[in-house]
Amino acid sequence: MHSTRRNLPQLLGDARRWFDEGLLTALEAAGAAPVSPTQVQLFAVLDDQGSTVAELARHMGVTRQTAHQAVHGLVAAGLLAQAPHPASARQRLIRRTREGERAHRQASTILERLEEQLAERIGREQVDALRTTLEAPWGRPPGPGDLSQK
C-alpha cells in the first residue's frame, strides 16, 4: 500500500514557503519593490562582506545562471551593487546597497514577527525545539554506501 505520509524534505519545503509567502506579502503591503522567492533566498545567503555569484549559487543550491539573474534583478531594483573582487580581476563581489541594507533589516523584522506568529499558533516550545533541532550539526550528507539497507 502506498503511504501518504510526507517526507521531511517536503515538510521543510512547505515550512520555507510559509515563511517566504508571509515575507513577500508583508513586503508588498509595506510598499517594497517586488522581489521573487529566489531573490529573497539570495538576500538571505549574501555575506555582509559581499559574495560572488558562484558563492551565492552554491549557498542557494541553484545554477550560476539562476543566481546571476536574481542578482541582476536586485541590482536593477537598487538593492545590490557589484564591485571589483580584490583577489580576482575576473570576479565581482555582490553587496547590498544602502537601500538593500534597509530592506534586509525590514525583512529580518518581518521574519521575527512571522516566527512569533508561528509560536502563537503551534506553541513556543515547539518553535524552540524546531530551532534547536535545525541548528544542531547534522554532519555531511551520507554517501551512497551509507544508505544501503542492512
From TrEMBL:
Annotated source species: Streptomyces coffeae
Name used for this protein in its record: Winged helix-turn-helix transcriptional regulator
Domain of life, per lineage: Bacteria
SMART domains xrefs: HTH_MARR (SM00347)
InterPro entries: HTH_MarR-typ, MarR/SlyA-like, WH-like_DNA-bd_sf, WH_DNA-bd_sf
UniProt cross-references to PROSITE patterns, sorted A to Z: HTH_MARR_2
Record domain HTH marR-type: where: 5-139
